[in-house]
Design goal:
The protein is of the alpha/beta class. The chain has one domain: TIM Barrel. The chain is about 35% helix and about 10% strand.
Length: about 300
């Protein structure tokens, strides 16, 4: 009897490319206030806002939105790159929305934010990488919300010359660009970027506008070694970066870069201790730490630390 359409290797059918490891008990997000969560969600959806919270499937979305914290993403939801760790979609982006600066300013007002984080997808298709758009968003947001501190998390503006200066001319309170991982893993994890290009961006940004705090972040769990993480810390301090975040890489799907391992909370505490010894003004290090996670609280702590050191 002939059996038709039988797979030659049935054990391989639907087998995940990179199986996702089960999360340990210490990685749990929490819903603090359901009323505030749904209010934030309503504002975001009604105004058709793009947030990195949703686009990147951030594990902290329930906690942050419960406190009416949302990281706003400008210039669309489609990235021109395809980093192996990121869950934001890749493709050909649409044209910039000329009304987006005022939309963002209004959203910050509605959400009543004391501190706002504004980020974007990579826009390699634009001659300036989107730096002029960042400038306009910052200016409009500050005009409508004079008491709100503004933090931007920008792309690397790779091969865009001095385009980054346009962002800094708008005087954000914090200029953030994530280094993401160690040099040895760049070609696999972040193939469209260059490690030393990101370092130069951070270093040049501080030189261009010393009144703006600089910030960067790294994820762990890709397979990096401890001494490589420490080297990144040294490199960032050499670039005069003020603030460092260290968080756990969480593999979005079986098609993304495979997770090597989960770091224990004690390891994050050790990395935080090492980073502080390097001279960073503030360090946030935990499994759920992300660039914008507790950004408002961290910025206030940063300012208090500076005041304490002055006196």
């Amino acid at each position: 009897m002939e059996i038709k359409n039988r797979p030659r290797h049935p054990e391989k059918v639907n087998k995940p490319i990179n199986p996702i490891k089960k999360k340990p008990k210490w990685i749990r997000s929490k819903l603090l206030n359901s009323k505030e969560f749904f209010l934030t969600k309503t504002i975001v959806n009604k105004d058709n806002l793009v947030t990195v919270c949703q686009e990147a499937n951030c594990p902290n979305i329930t906690e942050c939105w419960s406190k009416r914290h949302a990281t706003l993403m400008i210039m669309g939801d489609t990235c021109t790159r395809a980093c192996a760790f990121c869950d934001v979609k890749t493709g050909k982006p649409e044209k910039l929305d000329q009304f987006e600066p005022i939309k963002i300013a209004n959203a910050v007002k509605k959400l009543n934010l004391n501190h706002v984080v504004i980020t974007s997808v990579d826009r390699d298709d634009l001659t300036d990488g989107g730096s002029n758009h960042f400038h306009d968003v910052i200016v409009a947001t500050r005009k409508k919300n004079p008491n709100t501190t503004i933090e931007v998390l920008t792309p690397d503006f790779l091969r865009k010359g001095e385009a980054y200066k346009r962002v800094l001319e708008a005087n954000p309170d914090v200029f953030n660009h994530n280094i993401e991982t160690v040099p040895s893993l760049y070609l696999k994890v972040r193939p469209g970027a260059r490690y030393f290009g990101s370092l130069e961006l951070l270093k040049n940004s501080k030189k261009f506008n010393q009144n703006v705090f600089t910030k960067s972040g790294i994820m762990v769990g890709f397979g990096e070694k401890k001494d490589e993480i420490i080297q990144v810390m040294d490199d960032l301090r050499s670039a005069d970066v003020d603030f460092l975040t260290i968080g756990q890489y969480l593999q979005p799907s079986d098609k993304h870069f495979p997770l090597d391992r989960y770091y224990h909370p004690d390891e994050f505490k050790e990395l935080e201790k090492i980073a502080k010894s390097k001279g960073f003004l503030f360090v946030s290090s935990s499994a759920l730490t992300r660039s914008s996670y507790h950004a408002d609280e961290d910025f206030n702590k940063l300012k208090k630390n500076i005041t304490k050191n002055i006196h």
